[in-house]
Design brief:
The chain is α+β, with helices and mostly antiparallel strands. It is built from 5 helices and 8 strands, in the order H-E-E-E-E-H-E-E-E-E-H-H-H. Strands 1, 2, 3, 4, 5, 6, 7 and 8 form an 8-stranded mixed sheet that branches. A hairpin with a 4-residue loop joins strand 2 and strand 3. The radius of gyration is 17 Å and the shape is globular. The N and C termini lie far apart (40 Å). The model has no long low-confidence stretch (mean pLDDT 93).
């Protein structure tokens, strides 16, 4: 299911951005039967999932936090909340169907935004109080938001849309990030993992001899020139 350029120009603009990133690929599409109902389990109209490579991963992208069909928000330069959510998770070599937990996680975040009217932004961090992967035990119990490293921002007929990637982090990683400004959070996560893959099976980067020095350097306020 994709957006018709005339009936859903905002939807079509997102489709076009993804087609440029994944030329010729037909995504997995997961549509909601109760779209735009804030109290529904799945209030976002759809989530598309693409097969990314180098590294192999699933790339999830939401539809519904920006304006898809018509302009209703007051700001002519920003579409809806001004962002759509993305998430990257590992994809096994024989895996043909994406996991369902990122759908639940992204729909849950979408429900929060639609119900409260509060958007998310670059550098936003939060403690989820439980696993980022519903139904799966994981050390990733927190999240941070960064601009999607490959999609970034687009401009639609209804205004700009930033693709905001949700990255799962551990409690101790979150505590380290809370000492940083928003730009520092983005730079830190970019150094730790450029693609920002959320792997529920991973432990804290503080236990990784390659990643821990990066975290400690940011804790000391030593940022590399970018």
């Amino acid at each position: 299911m994709t957006g018709d350029g005339q009936d859903a120009p905002g939807w079509a603009a997102i489709d076009d951005a993804l087609a440029r990133l994944y030329p010729g690929q037909v995504p997995h599409q997961f549509a909601s039967q109760r779209a735009n109902e804030p109290d529904a389990d799945s209030p976002l109209p759809a989530i598309a999932v693409y097969e990314a490579r180098r590294p192999d991963s699933w790339h999830f992208v939401t539809y519904g936090l920006s304006e898809l069909f018509d302009k209703s928000s007051a700001d002519p330069d920003v579409s809806g909340f001004g962002f759509e959510l993305t998430m990257r998770v590992p994809r096994g070599p024989e895996e043909r169907v994406p996991p369902t937990w990122p759908l639940l996680a992204l729909q849950g975040l979408g429900r929060y935004v639609l119900a409260t009217g509060q958007g998310l932004d670059t550098g936003h961090c939060a403690d989820l109080g439980g696993s980022i992967a519903p139904g799966i035990e994981s050390a990733l119990t927190c999240l941070a938001c960064v601009p999607d490293p490959l999609l970034r921002k687009i401009y639609t007929p209804f205004g700009s849309v930033l693709f905001l990637q949700v990255v799962g982090v551990t409690q101790d990683e979150l505590e380290a990030m809370q000492r940083l400004d928003h730009e520092g959070v983005v730079h830190l996560l970019g150094e730790l993992d450029f693609h920002g893959i959320s792997d529920p099976a991973r432990g804290s980067y503080f236990a990784d001899p390659r990643k821990a020095p990066v975290l400690r350097r940011y804790q000391l306020g030593v940022l590399l020139d970018r």
